[in-house]
Amino acid sequence: MNIPNSLTLLRILLIPVYIGLLVYEEFDQALLVLLAAGVTDALDGTIARAANQKTRLGAFLDPLADKLLLTSGFITLSTIHLIPSWVTILVVSRDVMLLLGTAVAQLTETEIDITPTFLGKGTTFLQLSYVLLVIFLSSRQIDLQYLHPLLFGMAAFTLLSGFHYLYRGYRRAGSVGL
User: Fold this and answer.
1) What distance in Å separates the CA atoms of residue 116 and residue 104, rounded to the nearest whole number?
2) pTM greater than 0.85 (yes/no)
3) b or e along 133-159 (b: 16 or more beta carbons within 10 Å of the residue's beta carbon)?
4) Nearest to 12 by CA among 53, 54, 52, 71
5) DSSP string covering 66-80, please?
6) Do residues 41 and 62 touch, judged by C-beta distance below 8 A?
7) What angle do CA 21, 23, 142 make, to 5 degrees?
8) d(CA 63, CA 12)
9) Total Cβ atoms within 10 A of residue 161
10) Axis-axis angle for helices 27-50, 3-23 (nearest 10)
11) How many whole angstroms separate alpha carbon 162 and alpha carbon 160?
12) How many CB atoms lie within 10 A of CB 106?
């Protein structure tokens, strides 16, 4: 256990705090916790690279912590009716699809390319931006309809990136004869 992995674990431990603050509509504090989690994310990567402390555990935990934080935000915001349920279903379904594809590749010992694509990175950026803005606007009691263009853009990126990752996996499976 090194400093970067400890920071990643801290980020995971912040998730219940973040969820609780959202549920009790303490949006400013939830934003602070989310920003603190973002700082730990930046720090753990920087420290791991600078101090040559990259580990297999960190390579697994870091993206898991990010995904858990983002997914818990979508689920919670949907549960308290700040975002439409269909959005959460879309986001979670895409992530489950990617997780299942990765699991199948591991079980069949198929090499897969898990490098993020432009669509994948764009999706993450738009999802995070949407969650942050929903929380921020809710804290200021500003109508969330202003976010509809972002919502639909984020949904489109989520769908496109999901289909793109499926296509890449299908192409790869076909090239190895599965």
Assistant:
1) 18
2) yes
3) bbbebbeeeeeeeebeeebeebbebbe
4) 71
5) HHHHHHHHHHHHHHT
6) yes
7) 85
8) 11
9) 22
10) 170
11) 5
12) 10
The tokens describing 160, both together, are 């496109």
Cα–Cα distance, 168 to 175 (Å, whole number):
11
| 169, two tokens | 């996996």
Closest CA to 23 of 81, 64, 102, 71: 81
Residue with tokens 């995070």: 128
Q: What is the pLDDT of residues 96-126, one digit of tens each?
A: 998 888 888 778 887 777 778 899 999 999 9
3-state secondary structure of 125: helix
Tokens 């603050």 locate to 21
Phi, psi of 122 (to 5 degrees): -65, -40
In one-letter notation, the amino acid at residue 91 is: V
Which residue has tokens 């496109």?
Answer: 160
Query: Which residue type sits at 24?
Result: Y
Place of tokens 């993020």: 116
- pLDDT tens digits for 16-67? 999 999 999 999 999 999 999 999 999 998 998 899 898 888 888 988 999 9
Structure token pair of residue 92? 């979670």
And the tokens for 20?
A: 């609780």
Place of tokens 């949407």: 130
For tokens 């269909």, the residue is: 86
